[in-house]
Amino acid sequence: MSTSSSAQFRALLTGIYRRVYEGNDQITLQFLMDNVFKGTDITAEELGRLCTVCEKVLRRAGFEDWDVTNFDAIMEQSPLTEEQRDVFSKFWRAHRAKIHSLLVDKSSWDNELVRFSWRIDLQTKSKTVAELDDPTAILEFAIAPPTSLQSSAASGEASEHVVRFEMDQRQLAHAVHEFNK
Fold it and tell me: What is the pLDDT of residue 157?
């Protein structure tokens, strides 16, 4: 594969990435034929098969969050040439984190727990009772909409919602019991 065909393969991978992960519906097989592979002897059927192989690998690698070593090992079994595998491996290294982040964002549709903190307070004296040994758990949760919704919000303010509450020893024991079921 020459330098120009390496660049074409890289452009093909970029096109597949944009179509699959960024939702760009303008990148079709015909678009790739006209803009990336114009003047080459590749047929629409060959390009279609190549696109299918690359898209399947990219989807699976993104879904399973393959590390580079795993990606390279699995690519050894692919029908791609060694030079195409090298280009694909470099592409994966450059886009792995972004693909994983996009998939996580797309799969989050409900609020996310951003922060959780707790402490135990032990009250030892009171005006009415000389000595107390009554522990109280104080919990704080920070909840925010999914990352994708936060980034699309027009306001620059953080949209975290903080929930604080206290639990006495009996309530805490009940909560722990419910978690352990």
Answer: 54
Cα dist from 119 to 79, 149, 164, 174, whole Å: 57, 31, 11, 17
- To 5 degrees, how large is the angle CA 41–CA 44–CA 50? 90
Each residue's pLDDT tens digit, 58-100: 999 988 889 999 999 988 888 888 999 999 999 999 999 999 8
Q: DSSP assignment, residue 63? A: H
Residues 81 and 1: their CA atoms lie apart, in Å, by 9
Q: pLDDT tens, 115-154? A: 999 998 887 776 776 667 778 899 999 988 876 544 544 4
Name the burial class of residue 58, with classes exposed (0-12), middle (13-18) and buried (19+) by CB atoms within 10 angstroms of its CB: buried
**Cα 29 to Cα 15: distance, rounded to the nearest angstrom:** 10
Residues 6 or more apart whose CB falls under 8 angstroms from that of 42 comprise: 33, 50
CA distance 181 to 174: 11
> How far apart are the C-alpha atoms of 4 and 10, rounded to whole Å?
10
